[in-house]
Structures are given as structure tokens and as C-alpha cells.
Design brief:
259 residues; alpha/beta; Elongation Factor Tu (Ef-tu), domain 3; Rossmann fold; 2 domains; 16 strands; disordered N terminus
């Protein structure tokens, strides 16, 4: 471990009151050929809070033609109408407090429940959201920062870079991003100067691991974030777990490949 608690500048966890919201699609924006942004609004947005760049909000997708209302949160737990819980997926919330709008960027890959909903979404449609239950507030001012992700993590990376830019900071940032289509690079337009971004081929684990192994992580004042497919994330992070302060290494599985 390279940093002690005496000198560490640690992320901070905060809890939010769990709320489910029924929101309305205000507009749909094609950010790039691979990403579609769905912007939501409505009275239920009152009190929404998301202070962590990689927060997760659960989106619920009931079957077509099946009406669905938000569940109730009680002392006994979450009470689902008719004991039916529709399938849900986690997405990074992009909240504009000034405009009272909540957006989600969907990676338009082949198949997938959420992806299909985003393709078909139209203004006036409704969507049920839950959370985020809490946030990990990661200081923006670490001198050295490393981010490793695939398309699933790009909305969180984009939010992180925007948060750092809003603070007027210019830390040393490296990002290793694996993508299936290099047209995805346009998703970070306007933010490329914030980081040394290396675009790698999706599925080439050997290349990703080699690039990661060649990066010299400083002894202190750093933050490392690794996300993506669950098994790959575990293999990539394993060599770092014994060397880095666990509170400064954020590892998260954003999706799981079928066995």
C-alpha cells in the first residue's frame, strides 16, 4: 500500500433517502451514432441528489402494455404494486439542477432491454427511476488520476471530467478506454484536452493489461478507477490491489458477460 491514512485525502460516502420517481421524457438527443441521451423531467424530480460522478440510478422497464406505478418505501421495505417488480438496469445520472432535468446516456449496442427502450423513446413517454441510494464523493483535486473503462463507463467518465473542469482544475489524468467503434471517440468531444485518453480495441484484454501495467502510479495523491465487464475488471485490478490504498482504488463491475 502506497499511502497511509495519515496523509490520505479520501473519498466520502453519503447516503440519500431512497425515492422512486415517475418522470416524463422531455426530449431525445443523439449524442453520437453510438449514444442516445434521454432527458427526463417532472415534479417528482424535487429533492433529487447525486453528488458522485459514478452514481447509479435504477431505471425500470415494464413490459409493453403493462401499467406500472412507483413502489412505496416503508419501514418494512420496498412495497411493489401487486408484488411485481419489473426488470431494471443501472445508469449514471446526469442531473442539471438549474434546469431541473435528469438525463441518461444509453450506449446503443445490439440487443438489450434498456437499449431498445432508448431507441424507441419519444417525448411524453414515462420512466420509473429509483435512487441513487447514496454517493461516493471523490475529491476532484487528486494530482494524478487514472480511469479505465469501456463504453458502459463513458457517461461516468464524461461526468467526472466535466466536474473537474467546472472546478478549474488541471490534474494529470490518464484514461484507458476500450471501444468497439472508434466513432465513439466523439462522445468526449470538448473534453479531450482534460486527459491523456488512450483508445483501445474492445476485447483485447492483453493490450489493455499491457497499457495498464506500463503506467507508473505515484506514491501518493492519486486516484484509480477501473470499471467494465465484471471478470475483466477483476483480472485487471488484481495486480493493483496489494500495492494501492483500497480507498483510492475504485473497482466496479458495470456489466457481466454471459458464461
Amino acid at each position: 500500500m502506497t499511502q497511509t491514512s495519515a496523509t490520505a485525502h479520501y473519498p466520502r460516502r453519503v447516503r440519500n433517502t431512497l425515492r422512486f420517481r415517475q418522470l416524463t421524457v422531455l426530449r431525445c438527443e443523439d449524442i453520437t451514432p453510438a449514444f442516445r441521451r434521454i432527458v427526463l423531467g417532472g415534479a417528482d424530480l424535487a429533492g433529487f441528489s447525486s453528488s458522485g460522478f459514478d452514481d447509479h440510478t435504477k431505471l425500470f422497464f415494464p413490459a409493453a402494455g403493462q401499467p406500472f406505478t412507483p413502489p412505496q418505501v416503508s419501514e418494512e421495505g420496498i412495497l411493489w404494486p401487486d408484488d411485481v417488480r419489473p426488470p431494471g438496469r443501472d445508469y449514471t445520472p446526469l442531473f442539471n439542477a438549474r434546469r431541473q432535468e435528469l438525463a441518461f446516456d444509453f450506449y446503443l449496442h445490439d440487443g438489450g432491454l434498456a437499449c431498445q427502450w432508448a431507441r424507441d423513446a419519444q417525448p411524453g413517454d414515462t420512466l420509473i427511476t429509483g435512487g441513487p441510494r447514496g454517493s461516493l464523493e471523490v475529491p476532484e483535486d487528486y494530482h494524478w488520476q487514472l480511469y479505465v473503462c469501456d463504453e458502459s463507463g463513458l457517461p461516468a467518465l464524461r461526468r467526472r471530467l466535466e466536474m473537474i473542469a467546472a472546478q478549474g482544475l488541471r490534474p494529470a489524468i490518464t484514461a484507458l478506454v476500450s471501444v468497439r467503434d472508434r466513432a465513439t471517440i466523439a462522445y468526449l468531444d470538448g473534453l479531450h484536452e482534460m486527459a491523456d485518453i488512450q483508445w483501445l480495441a474492445a476485447g483485447d484484454e492483453e493490450s489493455i493489461a499491457r497499457h495498464l501495467g506500463q503506467i507508473a502510479i505515484p506514491q501518493q495523491d492519486y486516484f484509480v478507477w477501473i470499471t467494465g465487464e465484471g471478470k475483466l475488471v477483476k483480472r485487471l485490478s488484481a495486480p493493483l490491489e496489494q500495492r494501492l490504498d483500497p480507498q483510492l482504488l475504485r473497482v466496479a463491475a458495470y456489466w457481466h458477460d454471459k458464461p
